[in-house]
């Protein structure tokens, strides 16, 4: 099964794709109206616009360094998952999504890195909690958010995971307790992005790691922008050995070309009976 991840609503309807994911809110803070014929995606704690508008929302480490896109390790600005007002805003976006389509994909969930967050809100919440371990407290914060979000989603719940299946890494990095989250999520999505896919051994290694780590089905998302079609085909052949489906991100036309090429190659390789069998039967042999 193949799907597309896109900001262009019409692309979810292309017949080459069995499923479509449409970005309603992305990490820039850009928003769009939800659609009825695709799974609407919501970037939860990645939000450049919110961080620019209110820098106090941004997570900080114990030295006060913010998790913003102008610093090493961060491709976008983060919002602290403890902020109730911001979370309520996310729930309103999710409510809008389910009015259009009951299935929703939750994107960019978690704390930015292991050393976050040490803002005043998090410090107070941790002190008031029953936890002695900060990692356990962070995991509860994230699981609680997902639980509340899922209560609002009557259909299938998808959730994106950072592509690190090594035991304990997602828990320490982002506060993701996979065992707890699996009770609420119907399917995970693992983006395994490369700009070329010249080699794919790493893709197979990571996908297999998630296959071992998860009981819940997961799909692999590939990056399709300006990737050589033959390389993209090879990547999808590796990914589909493990994923519930293979999704293509942000260039539907290139993904469509890869799928058409793959199907054409498969047709060329088909055989119908033994060579010469038809002529032998016609001659009475």
UniProtKB/TrEMBL annotation:
It comes from the Archaea. Residues 259-285 are annotated as: Disordered. This is Glycoside hydrolase domain protein. It comes from Halobiforma nitratireducens JCM 10879. The lineage of its organism: Archaea, Methanobacteriati, Methanobacteriota, Stenosarchaea group, Halobacteria.
